[in-house]
Design brief:
Mur_ligase_C; Mur-like_cat_sf; alpha/beta; 451 residues; 16 helices; 33% helix; Rossmann fold; Protein-Tyrosine Phosphatase, Chain A; six-stranded parallel β-sheet; cell wall biogenesis/degradation
Length: 451
């Protein structure tokens, strides 16, 4: 960890806990700041806040009192999930108090080279692939962090110059950076998402583009060349752009020609040797190849991973084959595009399990991808909307259930040997489940119970 004096004796408010808030508060305390933590959850129900209190950190719980802004804070470190419309956040901005997210702290203390990955879909798969390839390569010592589950600043505390930090970044996190500068940045794709937080697609896209805001001429930005809109979005970057394309050959980037994935004209691996299914995953693979090749990774490490890597948990994850039916957990499909990608990855008949939080959108865009769906089982707030789409798509077998657990045995009853039973909700989980991981784990448990 770098020794920095930026925060010594400064009054800093950490707003919102969860894992990132706890890590940020502890780190700032170690760096000599006068830290106050404010979390909405009451103290007696808040073990994280209690732990910080034991460290000697001031803790205010149960509400977000606007009067806190009168205490002379010089900085606010905000939990990424708290919107900028929050009165405390909006008030701080009005007063000129800087508001950052925890990944900014991670960058400031990290001794390791940073590889940052963002995008609407494919972030986690791309992040994991890069990490796995670096692990398989001689001479590299990767650490994985960020939105993938491990708090970036916590990882950065133990990172050295011999490490490479592979960091998954959300738009929420990237809105709160100031100096954050990855040596290699990746934007997998940009589609409409999180409008309940960002308000407009433009604001959402600009948050994603922040990943390259501070990059310089000796840095790299890996982008999806099949999205003209994305190329326009990052036209301001100073970094060297490395494109990838699953649709056309590229001389200067990563693409596919004659069944072979190439990077800067060098043949890397036959597409037929890759075990991870789906056209969308081909894009993730190309982004990962580009990043690792820029880091000098040997082709044998890339091939070793791509010929064995079958996917990330909750992302078109193969769970089990029972009586000739294959079960896949794609609980991470929290939007329509992600569900489309999963549906388009299969040619077999599909029993689709879908539904979840209603964010106000319709699901008509899903219809072209329902061509192989023979039955749909719906649940959650969007059940009725999805049933209307199923009717338009000509799906005759449609059943509504209370939850994912009840959907699994019904899906099995409706299926035949050779069918795929796919949980790909096209919705966030928060109407019924705390996270998409919880939803996916419940699906997996229900599948195992069938045995």
């Amino acid at each position: 960890m770098k020794t920095i004096n930026n925060y010594q004796h400064k009054k800093i408010l950490v707003l919102g806990l969860a894992k990132s808030g706890v890590s940020a508060a502890s780190l700032l305390h170690k760096l000599g700041a006068f830290v106050t933590v404010n979390d909405y959850k009451p103290l007696n129900e808040n073990p994280e806040a209690q732990g910080l209190l034991e460290q000697g950190i001031k803790v205010i719980c149960g509400c977000h009192p606007i009067e806190l802004l009168d205490e002379g804070f010089e900085l606010i470190v905000k939990n990424p999930g708290i919107p900028y419309t929050n009165p405390l956040v909006a008030g701080a901005i009005e007063r000129g108090i800087p508001v950052i997210t925890e990944v900014e702290l991670a960058y400031q203390i990290s001794e390791a080279e940073l590889i940052g990955i963002t995008g609407t879909n494919g972030k986690t798969t791309t992040t994991t692939l890069i990490f796995e390839i670096l692990q398989a390569n001689e001479g590299t010592n990767p650490l994985i962090a960020g939105n993938i589950g491990t708090v970036a600043s916590e990882v950065a505390e133990t990172a050295t110059k011999d490490n490479q930090m592979v960091v998954e970044l959300s738009s929420f996190q990237l809105m709160g950076i100031r100096s954050f500068r990855p040596h290699i940045a990746i934007i997998t794709n940009i589609y409409e998402a999180h409008l309940d937080y960002h308000g407009t697609k433009k604001e959402y896209a600009q948050a994603k583009a922040n990943i390259t805001r501070n990059q310089l001429e000796d840095d790299y930005l890996i982008v999806n060349a099949d999205q003209e809109e994305l190329l326009d979005l990052i036209s301001f970057t100073k970094a060297k752009i490395i494109p990838f394309s699953a649709k056309k050959p590229l001389a200067e980037g990563c693409s596919i020609a004659n069944g072979m994935i190439t990077f800067l004209g060098e043949e890397i691996i036959l597409r037929s040797d890759i075990v991870l299914p789906g056209e969308h995953n081909l894009e993730n693979i190309m982004a990962a190849i580009a990043a690792t090749k820029l880091m000098g990774v040997q082709n044998k490490a890339i091939r070793k991973v791509l010929t064995t890597f079958k996917g990330v948990k909750h992302r078109t994850q193969f769970v089990e084959e029972i009586a000739g039916r294959k079960f896949y957990n794609d609980s991470k499909a929290t939007n329509i595009l992600a569900a489309q990608s999963a549906l388009n990855a299969f040619s077999e008949p599909i029993i689709l399990l879908a539904g979840g939080l209603d964010r106000g959108n319709e699901f008509d865009e899903l219809i072209p991808s329902l061509k192989n769906v023979k039955a749909m089982i719906t649940f959650g707030q969007t059940a009725e909307k999805l049933e209307k789409v199923a009717e338009i798509a000509g799906i005759e077998m449609v059943h509504r259930v209370d939850n994912v657990e009840k959907a699994v045995p019904i899906a099995f009853e409706l299926s035949k040997p050779g069918d795929v039973i796919l949980l790909s909700p096209a919705c966030a989980s928060w109407d019924q489940y705390k996270t998409f991981e919880v939803r996916g784990d419940i699906f997996i448990d229900a599948v195992h119970k069938l045995k």
